[in-house]
Amino acid sequence: PDRPMGLEWIERAARAGLVDAQFNAAVIHERGEGGMPVDNLRAYAWYRVAARSGDEPAADSVGRLGGLLSEAERARAEDMAQQFLPGTLPDAS
């Protein structure tokens, strides 16, 4: 499905390095908010990025979601997190 405009802006802010936006992007993907399907891989990846920026609730969420993912899924989500680091993900527009 098309991504809601709100998520697009949150992810732009997240890619720019705003920790709150990184955490919020994770929450949206985890909960499937705004008409988006639940996506625990993307949620884990955004939580991981926020955790690397020092967000403690995000670090807790990494541990919680990590327990729900298979080893292969965690590895894929870790790769995604590397791509989501500020300045590494091309603008989606």
Percentage of residues in helical conformation? 55-70%
Task: Give the low-confidence spans.
Answer: 89-93
Structural class: mainly alpha
Total count of helical runs of at least 4 residues: 5
Report the average pLDDT across residues: 88
User: How would a crystallographer describe the biggest sheet?
Assistant: none
Shape: globular
Number of strands: 0
What is the terminal-to-terminal distance?
16 Å
Write down the Rg. 12 Å
> Which strand-content bin applies to the residues?
under 5%
The SSE order reads HHHHH
Task: Give structural notes.
It contains 5 helices and no strands. The protein is an all-alpha fold and about 90 residues long. It is globular and about 30 Å long. Mean pLDDT is about 90; it is low at about 90-93.
Please give a quick description of this structure:
The chain is mainly α and 93 residues long.
SSE diagram, text form:
Layout: H1 5-15, H2 19-31, H3 40-52, H4 56-66, H5 71-84
Helix pairs in contact: 1-2, 2-3, 3-4, 3-5
Essential attributes:
0% strand, 67% helix, 93 residues, mainly alpha
